[in-house]
Amino acid sequence: MEAVDQGSSVTTLELFFDLVFVFALTQVTAWMAAGEGAPTAQAVVRGVLIVTVLWWCWVGYAWLCNVVKADEGMVRLGLFVAMAIMFIAALTIPEAFVDLPGGLFGPAVFALCYFLVRAVHIGMFWLASDEDPQLRRQLLRFVWPMLWGTVVLLVASQTEGTVQTVLWVVALLGDYVGTQLGGTDWRLRSARHFAERHGLIIIVALGESIVSIGIGVVDLPISWPIVAGSILGLAAVAALWWAYFDVTALITERALAAAEGANQIRLARGGYSFLHLPMMVGVIMLALGLKKALGYIAGDDGHDLTDPIYGVSLIALYGGTVLYLLGHIGFKYYVAGQVSPARIGVVILVGLLVPVVWFTPALVTLAVLAVVLCGLIGFETHRFAEQRHAIRHEHG
């Protein structure tokens, strides 16, 4: 196995690995949106739990491929095996909680895939730490919460209803909390690679939102409402991209690179592994809201332009945006120590707008969100023009 060096960037194999993750996110959004009418609160909660499981699988390989190069030696083979397992898990997402008639028992297959993809990760990390006793001890501490999570998830597959959902929460809490308490003896060989890796997965999630815009109207004839709704949805997603990548990604990467030792590991684990999760969940909820909003705007299922998007669909649209921004604000503060008052203000504003737009037409609801987000970006770009230029051209 070949070690990652400080200046390494993301490999094409890692991007290839993410294609399976893209499919899995698409499956989650489609599953939450399935059925007649608005999605249910239970479907959204369970969708969030599935995303949380998928995220923790992905995070493990992000750390692994920051230690040893993904496209060299046994790691390459390990990634292909993990991809195959993840793909099966993604296919099983519609049955992750409730088995469908015929075939294998879906919930158990999903839980088993989770166990296997984590086992491959541990096996690859064990080989990578062959000459690093400290990392091996850290890995052994990590195994116990991982086993807890996978075993409880397997138990959950044999239950149903509220008990099943609670067991999923217990499994994930044990895994996440155990990782948090398990120590800081991990290795971070390249801050650039680690930050770039997480930035790319945010792009993957935002891409799922764009896909959802198209899927919501793909079988309908093009119309002016569809054109307007698509542009507004794209504008909202573009504003979230800008919020992350314009300067925040640069500031946080440099702060991570400047940190050393255990502090660097804490920043990587807390800022990237943990605080990127609410951003991911927020984007998937936004994707669900956009899919439903475009369906309403396009006149699908008997709706017309006067129909409002309300209930769970509206909460997903606006609440997903709020969750993304909260994760983003926390990430920027945790890693770089910087507070974004304007973004905090927009979080509050979007939350307050929910009851205001509850009975407005879906197109107006989407327009309000797009205007608020684009207004935030416009304000910050003008207000902090000099600082923004200095950050973006610091090494130019």
What structural keywords apply?
396 residues; mainly alpha; 0% strand; globular
Short description:
The chain has helices at residues 12-33, 41-67, 73-91, 106-128, 133-156, 161-181, 191-215, 224-245, 248-258, 261-274, 276-298, 311-336, 341-357, 362-383, 385-392. The chain is an all-alpha fold.
Structural summary, described in words:
Helix content is 77%, strand content 0%. The longest helix has 27 residues, at 41-67. Helix 1 (12-33) packs parallel to helix 7 (191-215), helix 7 (191-215) packs antiparallel against helix 9 (248-258) and helix 8 (224-245) runs antiparallel to helix 11 (276-298). The chain contains 15 helices and no strands. With 396 residues, it is mainly alpha-helical.
Helix content: over 70%
User: Structural class, please?
Assistant: mainly alpha
State the shape.
globular
Mean pLDDT: 92
Taking pLDDT < 50 over at least 5 consecutive residues as the criterion, the unreliable ranges are: none
Number of helices: 15
Q: How many DSSP E strands?
A: 0
Radius of gyration, in Å, reads 21 Å
User: What about the largest sheet?
Assistant: none
Give the topology string: H per helix, E per strand.
HHHHHHHHHHHHHHH
CA(first)-CA(last) distance: 34 Å
Approximately what portion of the residues adopt beta-strand conformation? under 5%
